[in-house]
Amino acid sequence: TLYSGNGGALRDLLGLIRSTNPTLVLMAEQEAEHNSANLEARVSNSLRYYGAIFDLIDSSLPLDSPVRIKIEEMFAREIRNIVACEGSDRSERHERFGNWRKMMEQGGFRSMGISEREFLQSQMLLKMYSNENYSVRKQEQDGVAALTLSWLDQSLYTVSGWAPVDVAGTSSSFSQPS
């Protein structure tokens, strides 16, 4: 588990990843806040997030689908862990993009950004393979960009690209898009 109370285990993991000198690190995370120490906040956030997840499953798969049953079981385990477990017993600790952005930057990574071409490709793929309740938006904060998949008005998953920052303070292989 990456839980250490003070974030040390996650910093160590990011340091290990950085030490391999990757060209690109792709971060994909549930766009949810399930890492609060406050149980009430975790329950409230989980209800909103997983309510949207189960709504989209309901609109996409028949009740008797074996795939649906497996997906629902997986999410049930996540919910149980978020709501019923504390401390190092809780492994589901989803964070929003803003929090991950800070952790990645503090871990020595720089955002690769999202080009207009990549954004348009994501919208095109979404239109080809999904219903109208899904959307993709480009999320930007202080020049750091990511793509977020949403169901109705609930953000679900965010994807962003990162590269290690070298000693001179520039990206190792790519330059940040303007």
From TrEMBL:
Gene: GRAS4b
Protein's name in the database: GRAS family protein
Residues spanning the signal sequence: none
Residue ranges of the region described as SAW: 84-163
Family per record: Belongs to the GRAS family.
Organism: Dimocarpus longan
Keywords: Transcription, Transcription regulation
